[in-house]
Amino acid sequence: MWFFSKRSAPINLGVELVVEVHNHVLPGVDDGARTMQDALQMMFFWAEMGYQKVIATPHQNTSMNAPEYRLQEAEAKLHAQLQEQELPIFLTSAAEYLIEPELRKQLDSLRTFGPKRYVLIELGFWMPPIGWEQVVFELQQRDYTPVLAHPERYSFADKQTMKKWFEQGYLLQVNLLSLGGAYGREAQAKAEYLLEKGWVHFLGSDMHHPSQIPLVAQALTHKAVRRHIPKLLNPTLL
């Protein structure tokens, strides 16, 4: 079994982040890990970095909407492999929901994480969905706590927009892959800006495949990550 060597990243900030909150590690359910081998490589990496828990967040939208039994089956199979490998890391799962009309049909049965029923949501990358703020309000009315995934990746989200979201009380989750430069300089700069402003509540990788491990490892050495870890909510999810 291949795994990432500790020697390649001496600053293992996973020890301080404790919980990985956004990824697509469940094999064969969305555009993430294709095989069990892919999933195990990703899990080995997080264990090597010092994480104690991984919360899988498979896509749930009209184009990628695996039924509940498939999600549970994929999680159970991966969990069994982790036990067989004696890997000291805990696996659980939630989901990443795209704000779209179909979501309203699922509002009573969303997959959440953490004690405050956090639910990970994403917007369109080029423009926000019409009425998305009303959907967020409806989630809050149902006692969910929405977490906005990767605001730095939305091309329409400038500094004033992100400031408004934070001031309105939205919880924001930034991708380590953004800090590692995976999506270009603009997304990286916005991720750094959000961290420096103290507007980030959760850091997650958004890793889809083992090929992204080097960029996530690079991001885990980012000086802004170390400075702002004490402000993050990741450790509260253990």
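The record above closes out task 2.4. Task 2.5 opens with a second protein, given below.
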Amino acid sequence: MMVPDEFKFRLFRSKPLDKPEYADRLYSLLDAWKYTPVKFNDVEPLRNAWENRDVFIRQFLINSRSTFGTLMCKWSKPTLHLSVTWFRGPTSKCHSLSLFGASVKQFGNDALDLVGLADQLFESFEFDYGFACLNSEYYHSNIYTDVQIDERTIQPVQVVGMEWPDCIPGLYWCNYFGKAYFEQGFGRRIADLPNTTKLANGIRLMRSDSALDWESPEDLERTQSLMETLGRDWFFTKETGIPDKALKTNKSLFLKPLPQ
């Protein structure tokens, strides 16, 4: 299956993103970044000009109290989207933030500008876990491409759904681990590994300098070696299924929408 040659960043929280200060903080952070969004909205098509700060904050809060809500931001140059997603309910319990649509051609081999933004987001919102890689690596690691839904329909299905934040969906080019993992004994030697950056609420681990190298024998070997070092029984993969170890986070806050 052909997938776009784009970067995919995703950050997760085990507690809801539903407070006014989060909305204000997100707007301020994106507005100060070297690339300023041009539009936003809670649904397509995007129609609100970025300058409408009060509307942005209001829509953020409306969506954060929904059973399923999402707020999208859009850049024109470079082509980029940011999406904040709120899941609530018996099976989907998670708040997350995604950056996607940035092509390798636009952002270069290492996408340092995007990594820098992801660092700020991870720290500012105290996310618990995150990853970044090319779409092609994510599909290879996390998508079944030939699941038959009925007698005629075959479609791709994500292997790792809302099992996070209890377990880690593989090891990617760029990886973020919050304090909760270290408090429970995950990756005691991670701070001594090369290509790690200490953040206010955890650590960023880069598997290699280039996101393009994920299929190389060296990167594949490095991935396996790092998983062994960190503890393979933390990771959810196509081959292993749900791991023995998990954070066992409290998801009760995600069971129903908050009062309006």
